[in-house]
Amino acid sequence: MTTEAIHHDVNETHDAHDHGDHKPTGFLDRWLFTTNHKDIGTLYLVFSLTMFMIGGAMAMIIRAELFMPGLQLVEPDFFNQMTTMHALIMVFGAVMPAWVGFANWLVPMMIGAPDMALPRMNNWSFWILPFAFTMLLSTLFMDSGGPAAGWTLYPPLVLQTGTSFAFVVFAVHMMGVSSIMGSINIIATIFNMRAPGMRLLRMPMFVWTWLITAFLLIAVMPVLAGAVTMLLTDHFFSTNFFNAAGGGDPVMFQHIFWFFGHPEVYIMILPAFGVVSEILPTFSRKPLFGYGSMVYATATIAFLSFIVWAHHMFTVGMPLQAELFFMYATMLISVPTGVKVFNWVATMWQGSMTFETPMLFAIGFVVLFTIGGLSGLMLAITAADFQYHDTYFVVAHFHYVLVPGAVFALMAATYYWLPKFTGNMYSEKWGKIHFWLSAIFVNVLFFPQHYLGLAGMPRRIPDYSPQFADFNMVSSIGGFAFGATQLIFVGIVWHCAFRSKVKATPKVWEGSRGLEWTLDSPPAYHSFNTPPEVTCNALSRAD
Amino acid sequence: MTDKQQSDDIRIKRAQAVKTAWVLGIIAVAIFATFIGSAVIGR
C-alpha cells in the first residue's frame, strides 16, 4: 500500500512537471517579485547564512577580546555593542529566518499544497528583513553607536543609547511584523491547503512543530513590540513606563520582555525538534516512536513556555511564592522534553541505523541539547540560581541549547533536504569532516564556560580576573576553530548547489517517507498543482 | 503561478485562508494593544 501510494504520487508529479516549471526569466522577477514558496525559502536561507557569517564574525571579536585578561583589541563600549548585536543578529537574523526558510520550502510539499496560502504576503514577509537588519547594523556606524545593553534591552541601561536607539526599535518592529506575517501564512497554509486525506494527525512532525511555533510567534511578537514601543516613548517622548524616578518600574520591563523571551527560546527550538523527528526515523529505518505523544509533548512545551518567564529574573526580589511557582513550572518542562528524548532514543533502538551526515548532526543534537537541558534544570532551582545568575554558566547553558541544539538541527536539515532542493548530492566525506570538527570544537568552546560561571565570572565583560584566564583561552581557541569549521559548511553547500556532478534521486534517502520525497529532485517550480490523495499513514511519520 | 492558473479548488482554499489570516492578524494587534493599554492604565 505504501509503495502504491508513493508511485501514484510520483506519476502525478511527472504530469505536473510538464506544465509546472514556468520560472520567471528576469532576475528581478525571479527574486524580488517572487511569490513562489521555493524561491522565497531559498531567499530566507541565503539571508540567514549571511547573517550567520556576520553574527559569527562578531562572536570572533568577542572571543578574541576574551582570549587573555586585560583589554586587548576593542573598547569596552564596542565590546558591549558586539555582545548585543551578536545576539540580536543570531536570534532574529539567523536562526529564526533559517527555520522560516525551511518552512517555506517544506510545509507546502509536506502537506501536498501547491504553494503557501498567501504568496504575496510571503514575499513581503521576507523582503522586510534585509531592510530591518540593514537599519540595525547601520547603528554601529552612527555617532551614538549601536545598542550595548544586551539583547534583553533592559532599562534604564538601554535608555542611555543615543539617537540610534530609534533605529534599533524600528528594526525590531520590522522583524516582528515579518515574523507575524510569516506565522499567519504558515498557519493559514496548514489549516486550509492540506491535500485530501492529510489529516492533522498524519502531518509530518516538522509541520506540527512549525504549526505550534507559528502560534507562539503570533502570541509573543506583539508583546516584544509593545515593550520596545514603551522604551521608545520613554527615550524620546518623556514617558515614564520604566523610569523609576518618574514613578515607572524597570522590573515591569523584565516581566514583559521575558513573557516574550522565554517562548522565543522555544520558537527557535521546536522546529529543531521537528527536524530531528524526521531524520532519526529515516536513518533508523523505523517509524517515529510515539508520534502522538510527540505532538502532545510539543503542545505541552509550548503551553508551559508561557508560565515560566520569571525564572530569568529570580534575583529581582519576587515574593517567595512566585519564585517557587516559577521554579516548579520550569522543572515541569523537563517532563514533555523527556518524553521527546525518550521517543528519539526508542526510535533508534534496534533500528537498522546508518550514519550519514544528517543522522550524525541529529544524534549530536540529541546528546548535546540534553546537556543544555540539564544545565537549564540546574538554573531553574531558585536558590542555586542566585549563584549562577548573570555568570558564564548561563552563557554556557543557552549556547548549548542554541548551537549544538538549534544550529546543529539546522545543519542536519540542510544536509537532509539540500539534495531535494538542488537535485545534487553533497560530498558525504566533507559533510562528516564538518560534523566531527563542529562536534569537537563546539564542546571546546562552550564546555569550559560552565566552569567559568561556577567560579564566578560574570557575563558581558570585556576584561576579567587572571584566575579565569586558562578556561577563557581554551574557550576562545574552540571558538576560532568552530568558526573556521563553518567555512567548510559554506563550501559544501556552494559545491552541492553549483558544482556537484552526483544527481539526487527523488527519494534521496532509502528510509525517507513523506510527500516531499515523491517529487523530483529538484522539484518542479510549481509542484502539487493537482493535490495528491493521502490514503494511509504511510506518507506521513505516523504509523 | 498567476491567479488565473489556479484551480477552483485552490481558489476556494485561498479565500478561506484569507479569512484565517484576518482572524490571526486581529489577534496579534489585539495582544499588542492589550499590553500597551494595560501598561498605560496601570501607570
Tell me about the biggest sheet of chain A? none
* Terminal CA distance of chain B: 52 Å
Oligomer: heterodimer
Outline of chain B, from the CA principal axes?
rod-shaped
The strand count of chain A comes to 0
Q: Largest interface here, residues on each chain?
A: A-B, 36 and 23 residues
Q: Which descriptor suits the 3D outline of chain A?
A: globular
Order of helices and strands of chain A: HHHHHHHHHHHHHHHH
The proportion of residues in beta strands of chain A is under 5%
Number of strands of chain B: 0
What kind of sheet is the major sheet of chain B?
none
Distance between the termini of chain A: 13 Å
Write the layout of secondary structure elements.
The complex is a heterodimer of chains A (543) and B (43).
Chain A: H1 2-18, H2 27-31, H3 37-65, H4 76-111, H5 119-138, H6 165-192, H7 205-236, H8 250-284, H9 291-304, H10 320-332, H11 334-348, H12 357-380, H13 382-388, H14 392-422, H15 428-454, H16 469-498
Helix pairs in contact in A: 3-4, 3-5, 3-16, 4-6, 4-8, 4-14, 5-6, 6-7, 7-8, 7-9, 8-11, 8-12, 8-14, 9-11, 12-14, 12-15, 14-15, 15-16
Chain B: H1 8-42
Summarize the entry for a quick read.
The complex is a heterodimer of chains A (543) and B (43). Chain A is built from 16 helices and no strands.
Structure description:
The complex is a heterodimer of chains A (543) and B (43). By secondary structure, chain A is mostly helical. Chain A is built from 16 helices and no strands. In chain A, α5 runs antiparallel to α6. The longest helix of chain A has 36 residues, at 76-111. In chain A, 54% of the residues are buried. Chain B is mainly alpha-helical. Chain B has 1 helix and no strands. Chain B has one helix at residues 8-42. The relative contact order of chain B is 0.08. Classes of the chains: A mainly alpha (543), B mainly alpha (43).
